[in-house]
């Protein structure tokens, strides 16, 4: 009779994201990418000329936008996700220090204390969540035109279009920052990061 031993834990790495969190992030990124791509083909003239079936692009855009909240809602059963949402929704004194350093363009790590998520990530998460809800609400008003008066739909179209532009810019910045931090990307891809990276970038993030 042989005993099955668990493989030794890699003490050089630290768990950052659960499987549910990574899948929710991946699915949301895909849906958001489809929304941005289809919006480009619908509203930018040079791209719009390349589309032969505009009605199909509109349908894909509508359904991918309507599905945006689903990955996060489906992953709410994850205790790790709920814990991280709580951390993202809470600002502490160290976050104010981080923001002051960012405004002064002080890039010294010692001047930017951070827990599991830094203040910039918290602001981005809150803004992205709010923007997604507004985009969903205005998009539904534009989709189901019989449910709201013309004045509401006109306002919804204005908000939807300009917010979509700002969302695209912010997402480009988010992707750009991720591209500049390979270990952060690896943490989202595999779920773990090196302890050296965690201690350097997030020194307040527990043992």
Structural class: mainly alpha
How far is the first residue's CA from the last residue's CA? 38 Å
Proportion of β residues?
under 5%
Described by the principal axes of the CA atoms, the overall outline is elongated
Q: What's the number of extended β-strand segments?
A: 2
Task: State the strand order across the main sheet.
Answer: 1-2
Overall pLDDT confidence: 90
**What integer value in Å does the Rg equal?**
21 Å
User: What pattern of helices and strands is seen along the backbone?
Assistant: EHHHHHHHHHEH
Helix percentage: 55-70%
Q: How many DSSP H or I helices?
A: 10
**Largest sheet, strands/sense/barrel:** 2 strands, antiparallel
Q: List unreliable stretches of 5+ residues.
A: none
Structural summary, described in words:
With 207 residues, the chain is mostly helical. The chain is 67% helix and 3% strand. The chain has helices at residues 19-43, 45-48, 54-66, 70-74, 79-88, 93-103, 119-143, 150-179, 182-190, 195-201, and strands at residues 13-15, 192-194. Strands 1-2 form a two-stranded antiparallel ribbon. The longest helix is centred in the C-terminal third of the chain and has 30 residues, at 150-179. The chain is elongated and about 55 Å long. The model has no long low-confidence stretch (mean pLDDT 90).
Give a nutshell description of this structure:
This protein is mainly α and 207 residues long. It has 10 helices and 2 strands. It has a two-stranded antiparallel sheet with strand order 1-2.
List the helices and strands and how they pair.
Layout: E1 13-15, H1 19-43, H2 45-48, H3 54-66, H4 70-74, H5 79-88, H6 93-103, H7 119-143, H8 150-179, H9 182-190, E2 192-194, H10 195-201
Antiparallel strand pairs: 1-2
Helix pairs in contact: 1-3, 7-8
